[in-house]
Structures are given as C-alpha cells and as structure tokens.
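Weekly sync, protein design subgroup
Attendees: M.S., D.O., the rotation student, P.L. (late)

Item 1: inverse folding check
M.S. brought a backbone from last month's batch and wanted to see whether the design step gives back something sensible before we order anything. D.O. pointed out we never logged the input encoding, so this time it goes straight into the notes. Structure tokens as presented (120 positions):
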C-alpha cells in the first residue's frame, strides 16, 4: 500500500513537472513573439497582404526572412467568419516581398491547423 502511494506521488510530480515545463516553453515563445512584433511591426505596415488584418503577429524574423501570422474577419452582407493565415516574406532590394502564404484555420472550409506559439 505504501509503495503504491509512493508511485502515485512520483507520477503526480512527473505530470506536474511536464505541465510546468510545457507552460513555461509556451509562455516564453509567446513573449518572444510579442517582442519581435513590437520591435519590427513598423516594417510591415504598408504591405498589402496584411492590410485589414484584425491581429498581426511576427512569428520569426531575420534580416532576410520573416514569417507573419494574421487573423482576418471576412464580412459579407449577411455573414462574417474568421481565418488565421501565415505569410512568408523575403527582404530584397530594401523591401519585404511576399514569398507565399497558407491558411492555418478557418471557421469555414477545411483548414483546421494551428500555429506555434498557439495564438488565436
């Protein structure tokens, strides 16, 4: 009986440690994303692909490449729905140029992925 309680305590400690480490990594990734966004968002203000986004976050940034996550609300006369899109940009000749995009999730259609760090 005593041995079983000891195993249960060890399992509980391991589970709590796992949750704590996971949350710490997630929070650190969100903090990095917020820092990168605050520092570099001005460089992307005039880029057509992200104009009108409800939320813009820079996921990664270097001197030659940036990955940006945007949430858009599509509105029609009778309806609206949201989607999350990831854009890639390369820096050439003094400007950021789109090099691709994909829809991560959408309230309509079949896109149902997620982006790391998880931001919705």
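Designed sequence read out in the meeting:
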């Amino acid at each position: 009986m005593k041995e079983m309680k000891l195993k249960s305590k060890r399992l509980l400690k391991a589970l709590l440690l796992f949750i704590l480490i996971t949350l710490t990594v997630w929070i650190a990734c969100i903090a990095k994303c917020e820092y990168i966004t605050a520092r570099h968002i001005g460089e992307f203000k005039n880029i057509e692909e992200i104009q009108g986004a409800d939320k813009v976050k820079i996921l990664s940034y270097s001197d030659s490449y940036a990955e940006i996550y945007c949430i858009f609300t599509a509105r029609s006369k009778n309806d609206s729905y949201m989607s999350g899109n990831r854009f890639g940009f390369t820096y050439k000749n003094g400007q950021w140029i789109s090099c691709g995009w994909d829809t991560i999730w959408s309230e309509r259609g079949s896109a149902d992925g997620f982006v790391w760090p998880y931001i919705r």
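Discussion: The chain has a mean pLDDT of 88. The domain at 2-106 is CATH 3.10.450 (Nuclear Transport Factor 2; Chain: A,).
Action: P.L. to compare against the previous round before Friday.
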